[in-house]
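Many introductory courses stop at the sequence. We go one step further.
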Amino acid sequence: MFVCKELKIYHDSKIVVDISFSIKESLALVGESGSGKSLTLRALLDLLPSGFKRELEVEWEYPLIRGKTLSLVPQNPFTALSPLTLIKHQFFSPDAKRLLELVGLDESFLYRYPPQLSGGQLQRVVIAIALSQNPKLLLLDEPTTALDSDTKALVLELFKRLQKELGFLILFVTHDIVAARELCKEIAVLKDGKIVESGDMEEVLKNPKSGYTKLLIESNFAFREFRK
């Protein structure tokens, strides 16, 4: 289990995120734009923008090492890779062929350039690269946003299969309640840098206690992001 006992993110002297959470298997962190979702991921990766700083206390059996125990699957696969570099040269592992096979791509993709791939194929490559150091916690930054509905469903199924095979934990940052429900066992709802409700996914969705959570559920996350 990954336990974040305390995460405080400051911008200048103001606290903009103040949360704690745990991940038993898979946790969806949901909320409107500007709620602090992406800042949370950046803080865990120690990649906060200039002007921000963090206070972080974690209870975990592994050290927090970006690219090794922690790995990120970014939002947009079209900007995650260098378009002028062969796929094989974008891996940080000599085991690229096996990693591609894990995500359902054959060896021929190593000899292609990113613009030659579809969005779904690109996302599979990005996932394979994220898995290259056998991470213990996979951070997902809205990885299905740029995909069509059919491809999104395939990618979510891929994450579930890979988690069963490789045993990593998942922290899934998303505005999409439908995708969150498909992938994660637990949910935490973020508002203005604080978690207003958390627990078992089905229980929270069926019986939300926070008015804010009810509003988010009622808003159609499957098609558009709820904004202020």
